[in-house]
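Async update (no meeting this week)

Hi team, since we skipped the sync, here's where things stand on the single-chain job. The sequence we agreed to prioritize is pasted below, unchanged from the tracker. I ran it this morning and attached the output directly underneath so nobody has to dig for it. Comments welcome in thread, and please keep replies under the output.
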Amino acid sequence: MGRTDAQTAESSPRTGMRYQWRCPCGEPISGYRSLTFQTVRCRQCQRIHPVFPVNPLAAPTTPPPPAAPAQRPRPAKPLTHKRMAYLGLAGFLLAVSIGLLVMPLVWKSGAPRSAQANSDTNSPRSIADVWKSAEAALSEGNFEESVELFRMIEQESKRTTPDLDANQRRQLERRLAQVLLLADLTWLSLPEILRPLPEMSDRHWQLHFTKYHSGKALLIDSDLFRDGAGQIQVDLDLRTAAGPIRVMWEQVRLLQELPLEKPQRWLFGVRLDRAVMDRNRTWTIHLQPESGVLVTDSDLLRFLPLPPDAELKHVQDRMRDIPVNRVR
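Output:
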């Protein structure tokens, strides 16, 4: 057996092969292997650890060759005026070459399409096709797309040679006005809008009206007439627990143009503006002046929150002869 003292083992001839591990007690143990078997005693717990001799047949380790000295980077050539001119000319020629290659493709794909678009825009056939697409979107309940297409017809017919006669223009104005109404129509009646008023404070109700109802289109199906003072009266029960409600029907220009000498049933839409309490603590509902629209097209009744009513067809026939529903 070899010597059992760690200091004695460390003083043995060094062969260049170092050993190193950690005793179970945590004390690090290290040293150099010798040509003979030896033991090492842990300084902490006095445990004896065997150290096997070095293999005399192992190939001697040779140190790695020294790294080659780093080469100094070659200084970049300064950009002289001559070199800059060459680079600029090369870039210009490259851009011209790319342009010559791409230009035929762009012309081939874009020019005919542009010519075709202009031809379709200026032709009566194009307006008929757009009108057909607008009606298809309307039949699916896509009011926003239908409005966009009808406005396109309106703009194109003004920019180019008139392709619509007076009757078609009037039909376009009526159709667009009614589709605009459907696009922003609230499904609540005016009494339903006023129902939560008694349960809210004045400020709360005003903010509620502005947030949920201001700018919305409201459908009215009621009898209208002018009283002895010339005020427009609508057959709606607007009494609430908070008191009577006043609606400024006179603000709507459409209603000013209607023949209201005697009570008659009308189907129309207006847009709500704001709710204001006057000095007598009476709520007044203001309406947008240019928002009045007569609902004259019978195919739109299925989109309205109304029960089936055979009389409505006669009401629409009567309203259709009135020259209103201008889109402003």
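Quick observations from my side:
The first helix runs from residue 6 to 10.
The chain is about 40% helix and 20% strand.
Reply here if anything looks off.
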